[in-house]
Amino acid sequence: MFRAQLRDKIQRSGGLQQWALEIEKLVRKSNPGADTKMVDTNIVQAFVDGIKDLEVSAAVRLRHHTSLKEALAHALEVESVRHNTIKFQPFWTRSF
Question: In which domain, by residue range, is 34 found?
Fold first, then answer.
């Protein structure tokens, strides 16, 4: 049951931290008693696969993180940079 939910799980509302908590809980429920390293790998993979912002997802995927903590920190950093870049973009490069 949890594995089916996990396969189709995409970040909805809420931030990346909420998404990380949600996905970690679901992966742990779907892999009871599994090897810790395998579970961590599955958590990172599911987290990255479900990030709704495709640019953030791609950037995080390229680093091949081994822990959710690393992947989340990187995703937050990329999201912040993207937000600040768009916010301070010169007016002539913005699309209206």
Answer: 2-88
Residue 20 forms part of a structural domain: yes
By CB neighbour count within 10 A (0-12 exposed, 13-18 middle, 19+ buried), where does 78 fall? buried
Whether residue 94 lies inside any domain: the answer is no
Whole-model pTM?
A: 0.81
Is residue 83 included in any domain, yes or no?
A: yes
Spatial distance between the Cα atoms of 4 and 7, rounded to a whole number of angstroms: 5
- Cα–Cα distances (Å) from 80 to 19, 24, 63, 66, 69, in that order, read 16, 22, 17, 22, 16
pLDDT digits (tens, 9 = 90+) for 2-48: 566 677 788 888 899 999 999 999 999 888 888 999 999 999 999 99
